[in-house]
Amino acid sequence: MTGRRLPRPAELAQILRPRPFVLNPRERRLSRAHTIADLRAIARKRSPRAVFDYTDGAAELEESLGRARQAFRDVEFRPNVLRGVADVDTGTEILGTRSELPFAFAPTGFTRMMQHEGERAVVRVAEREGIPYTLSTMGTTSIEDVAAAAPAARKWFQLYVWRDRAAGLDLMQRAEESGYDTLMLTVDTPVAGARMRDVRNGLTIPPALTLRTFLDGARHPAWWVNLLTTEPLTFASLSHWGGTVAELINTMFDPTLNYDDLAWVRENWPGKLAVKGIQNPDDARDVAHHGADAVVLSNHGGRQLDRAPTPLELLPATLDSVDGAAEVWLDTGILSGGDIVAAIAMGADACLVGRAYLYGLMAGGEQGVQRAIDILRAEMVRTMQLLGVRTIADLTPNHARLSPSCGRRTRRR
């Protein structure tokens, strides 16, 4: 029987090592975030409910978003061993130009509403990390100001076709003159989806100070102080708006959008063209035939048509349909580096990441976006090492598949 004794002071010193106190509250907050889910939890605490729900929510019952995330959970990785993975290269070519990670920052509307640093913070992180950044037509920083904030960043511009074609042409010209090399045309928004969280929260752009938002604001004073003491919310494409998001979409966007409009965009845009919002392999083939350099499998983050197809499940048939005529990118439901690795292994050329970096922005501004990137990169590197893969090009469907129990298939490149 082992006898008991009191520990010696030197022995206690070895195990009693309190974590150093971080004076900066933002750094202290972000140091506790080890996953995108952690950033989401911090963002939820720091943001008014209507603002958080605008970012976090989706359409109607939110089935599309839930299914997209479930599809990534259904992925089964198939590792190889004894491959020597001390050095991992996460870089790849996207539309002929190297990106240090196989994803780009997706376009997000009203970004300065989420956190006052907004698009400038996000594009600066993209510049440092060597990945593309996409400014939305509904962004809250102008095309020119985003370009000035990060001159060396690879910048893309996302376009909605408006009823006023002259306004769209002006936006394309401004983006070209400001050095944006790729246009991303979004085609899944002929009318607004029914985003019920926004409806129930009574969200307007900019947020109105009603009794409900005032009471909620008392719990988030820093957000309101930042909103009211920094430059007013303005947009990349219009001077002001005083209604809901759905009213804006239904007023400004053109529901008659068709392939003639795609041809018009292709004719007037001299750079690379990506078409976002593809939810059907036949549409992917047709869009590539009409001059798209990339098609983006996306159901708008689940924010438009509920019970829409799940992009990851569409990937094999879309690759068959496009047959190399255009790159195939994927978004919706991506919340980890492992999700990105899975999509690339199953055939996607690149991914778009939206909510993940917005959670970081809401949690801690530019530092929070940087934290999101650091998390995604670390997860990607670890996943690749555990799969026995050193480069993005080495990822194949041999490394990831949708679980056979789900009745789905993957496609070999």
Shape: globular
Order of helices and strands: HHHHHEEEEHHEHEHEHHHHHEHEHEHEHE
Distance between the termini: 63 Å
* Count of the domains: 1
Q: Please estimate the helix content.
A: 40-55%
Short description:
The protein is of the alpha/beta class. It has 18 helices and twelve strands.
Overview of this structure, please?
With 413 residues, the chain is α/β, with parallel strands linked by helices. The radius of gyration is 22 Å and the shape is globular. The chain has one domain (25-402): TIM Barrel (Alpha-Beta Barrel), CATH 3.20.20. It has helices spanning 9-15, 25-30, 36-46, 49-56, 63-73, 111-114, 118-129, 143-149, 165-177, 196-201, 211-217, 221-229, 245-252, 259-268, 281-289, 311-322, 337-345, 355-387, and strands at residues 75-77, 92-94, 97-99, 103-105, 133-135, 155-159, 182-186, 272-278, 294-297, 327-330, 350-353, 400-402. α7 (118-129) packs parallel to α18, α15 crosses α16 (311-322) and α17 (337-345) crosses α18. β5, α8 (143-149) and β6 form a beta-alpha-beta unit. Helix content is 44%, strand content 11%. The strands form three sheets. The chain has an eight-stranded parallel beta sheet with strand order 4-11-10-9-8-7-6-5. Strands 1-12 form a two-stranded antiparallel ribbon.
Overview features:
12 strands; eight-stranded parallel sheet; 413 residues; 11% strand; two-stranded antiparallel ribbon; globular; TIM Barrel; alpha/beta; 18 helices
